[in-house]
Amino acid sequence: MISLYAFMGALEQGFAFGLMVLGVYLTFRVLDFPDLTVDGSLPLGAAVSAVAITNGYHPAIAMSMAVGAGFIAGAVTGILNTKFKILHLLASILTMISLYSINIRIMGRPNMTLLGQDTLIDQFMEFTGLAPYISTPILFAIVSIIALAALIWFLKTSFGLAVLATGDNPKMITSLGVNRDMIIIFGVGLSNAMVALSGALVAQNQGSADVNMGIGTIIAGLASVIIGETIFSTRSVTAAMISAVLGSVLYRVAIALALGMRIGDFAFTPSDLNLVTAVLVIAALVSPQIKANVLGRRLRSNA
Amino acid sequence: MKKILLFMVLIFMVVVPVIHSAQSYTVSITQIVEHPALDSMRKGFQERLKEADVNVQYNVHIAQGNQATNTQIASQIKGENPDLILAITTPSSQAVAQKIKDIPIIFTGVTDPVAAGLVKSLMNPGNNITGMTDMSPIRRQVELIREFMPEIKSLGTIYNAGESNSVVLIKILKEVCAEFGIKVEEASIANSSGVYQAAKSLVGKCEAIYIPVDNTVVSGLEAAIKVCRQNKLPIFSADTDSVKRGTIAALAVDYYRMGLQSADMAVRILSGNAKPASMPVESLQNLQLFINPSAAEKMGIAIPKQVMSRADEIVK
């Protein structure tokens, strides 16, 4: 039903996009800031890293340039929202559509190939001597775990705690004398820095940076966050963030299953894929309610 | 005589099973999105293999425009371990080229395979991948427009700056037009709802409009045709389907035939007669001329007799 390659492919995609999902989690759940910048900052990270790699920079340096670019993009959204009082959704849409043009400027064309370039994936493969379908998911898992650990550490610092409190109770945080605007700008910046890093990994994995690769990022991000929350425990922030990354992996595994699914004579046609994705997300969204209802009924009948 | 007969029988025993045997192949197809031109390449490919009596099982994957899914499809295909891969469009080809180095890949519908990093050069692809470029015959298309309008000095064009194929085409268009002393007026759009505005912006700036093979513009083509009718501005296209929708004429690549020709490449690989590394990238020489007389009349332009006489299809 699902081959080893397809499964490993789902893992590597899950981890590569896991960073993006962490970014979405940070804005959507922690800062309570619905941020559509991601559809633009994912290809931004891809574009910046692709140009740097093509110009001979080490992939690791190329990726840190992507992180910087992503941070700036997010910070712009934050500034538009806090300093110019533009509604968060609109502010992020404005940054997103500007990034479309900017990304084409950065690459000088809409699609930049990485085939034949020395990417981080190639270097890691050479270093470990493993086949690409094994080494790539391992590499992406390592990068995700490092980012996850860094983010967990950050959120435990006093500044991080202020970020956490900003989404929960903006009034309290202001009364404590914390500059809320600064936190929003920094938080949205940090989120998009991770999204851009994700874009850099994704581009190396798909063989090119493409200005249209960001389409649907936010949907995949939200779906992964919700799947993670539904299936795993999210009692603490740390657990919630780990769940977000695992949600991303599960989301990709589910798509791999849908791509290879055949039940008797029935097979999903390629055009069903969007519907399958939507049903998946709806199921994840609805299942906690169903769980609560069933549980509630059981409690009532016990009483 | 006996020896010859024996020899012939032997030949039959060896050759016939190779051609007609129940040997069945698996071919995995990856395509970025469903779209009439892309679908007809796929159909052409499958029809020709059927005609050639090659027994093939297909795994067809379409990414619905989503590049993340596109990459996953590449992993999926690696797991299917087919005898051959058909990759339709640039992003689909790049994803399988990145993931799969040990299975022959035929690409089709790729405008510039060298810039896309798929092949080292058109003559010597070098790896496990080769195929067909659908590079528009822009020079011949501009020549066609000049047959209609010998004195033309300015040509407008609408394209999506985010489609890498279109950007390549516009660059060539400018080079070709410069040779003929024609100035190119560009209007770029980001989505198909921008076509109307873009067409309007060209009114008064150019003597005719040329629509390249651009997915975004072609999906919103009716808006441009409307503007051109209102302003008696001739509009030409680079694909034949658009002529049926109301452009005056097109000299174009036929995508179905392109599918047929890529299947011929596939047969050579499957039969073991050729390896992708040394098979030059092919293009379709056989172009089709479509003409729409009623569109020409609405836009106030006459169709030259010599053009009319060599049309492959005259749209009613």
Report on the structure:
The complex is a heterodimer of chains A (about 300) and B (about 325). Chain A has helices at about 5-30, 40-55, 60-80, 90-105, 120-130, 130-155, 160-170, 170-175, 180-205, 215-230, 235-260, 275-300, and strands spanning about 110-115, 210, 260-265, 265. In chain A, helix 1 runs parallel beside helix 6, helix 3 runs antiparallel to helix 4 and helix 7 crosses helix 9. Chain A has 12 helices and 4 strands; from the N terminus they run H-H-H-H-E-H-H-H-H-H-E-H-H-E-E-H. In chain A, strands 1-2 form a two-stranded antiparallel sheet. A two-stranded antiparallel ribbon of chain A has the order 3-4. With about 325 residues, chain B is α/β, with parallel strands linked by helices. Helix content of chain B is about 45%, strand content about 20%. In chain B, the strands form 3 sheets. In chain B, strands 2-1-3-4-5-11 form a 6-stranded parallel beta sheet, sandwiched between helices. A 4-stranded parallel beta sheet of chain B has the order 7-6-8-9, sandwiched between helices. Chain B starts with a helix and ends with a strand. At the A-B interface, helix 1, helix 4, helix 9 and helix 11 of A face strand 2, helix 3 and helix 4 of B.
